[in-house]
Amino acid sequence: MERTFIAIKPDGVQRGLIAEIISRFERKGFKLVAIKIVVPSKGFAQKHYYDLKERPFFNGLCNFLSSGPAVAMVWEGEGVIKYGRKLIGATDPQKSEPGTIRGDLAVVVGRNIIHGSDGPETAKDEINLWLKPEELT
Ligand code: ATP
Ligand code: MG
């Protein structure tokens, strides 16, 4: 069955949005198959966002992701990669529709509270980067 990697970023954890976010994925009908709290190191954040290394905001983004506890999760279900991105909303919360996680709960692009894999290859890579095989059910 299809799986995706979802992370609640440090701002989402700090703001007390863990239950709210998990609940939206659960109510949709997706299945939580792995979850843990981690404080990513800066080097780890750089690996996670490697594709964005040339962007001007890369350093700030990696500092932010490594600034505190994040929740790393794997969710499973038919179409979960694409639909998970739909639940999350557009990258910039100003452009996210109301009803989406970022649309309802975030304001600025640098503090958009949640990450979701953007395709089957990234989903596989990110699950392998963030979780050990024995942490997956
Ligand atoms: P994510 O990968 O976190 O799920 P995304 O796939 O919607 O987000 P990406 O293009 O992969 O968007 O960008 C990764 C992250 O980089 C964004 O979530 C956002 O926090 C940050 N980011 C993207 N564009 C900008 C920008 N113009 N200024 C500051 N931060 C940005
Ligand atoms: Mg992305």
Fill in the keyword field for this structure.
binds adenosine-5'-triphosphate; nucleotide-binding; metal-binding; alpha+beta; 18% strand; 137 residues; globular; 4 strands; binds magnesium ion; 4-stranded antiparallel sheet; magnesium; 7 helices
Task: Walk me through this protein's architecture.
By secondary structure, this protein is of the alpha+beta class. The chain contains 7 helices and 4 strands. The chain has a 4-stranded antiparallel beta sheet. Helix 3 (42-48) packs across helix 4. The longest helix has 11 residues, at 18-28. The site of adenosine-5'-triphosphate (ATP) has 10 residues, from strand 4.
Summarize it:
This protein has 137 residues and is an alpha+beta fold.
Structural class of the secondary elements?
alpha+beta
Shape: globular
Bound molecules: adenosine-5'-triphosphate, magnesium ion
Alpha carbon gyration radius = 14 Å
Q: In what range is the share of β-strand residues? A: 15-25%
Main sheet record: 4 strands, antiparallel
Determine the fraction of residues in helical runs and give it as a percent range.
40-55%
Q: Record the strand order, biggest sheet.
A: 2-3-1-4
Number of helices: 7
Query: How many distinct beta strands?
Result: 4
The ordered string of helix (H) and strand (E) elements is EHHEHHEHHEH
Alpha-carbon distance between the termini? 12 Å
* Average pLDDT taken over every residue: 97
Low-confidence parts, pLDDT < 50 over ≥5 residues? none
Organism: Actinidia chinensis var. chinensis
Subcellular location: Plastid, Chloroplast thylakoid lumen
Cofactor: Mg(2+)
Active site: 115
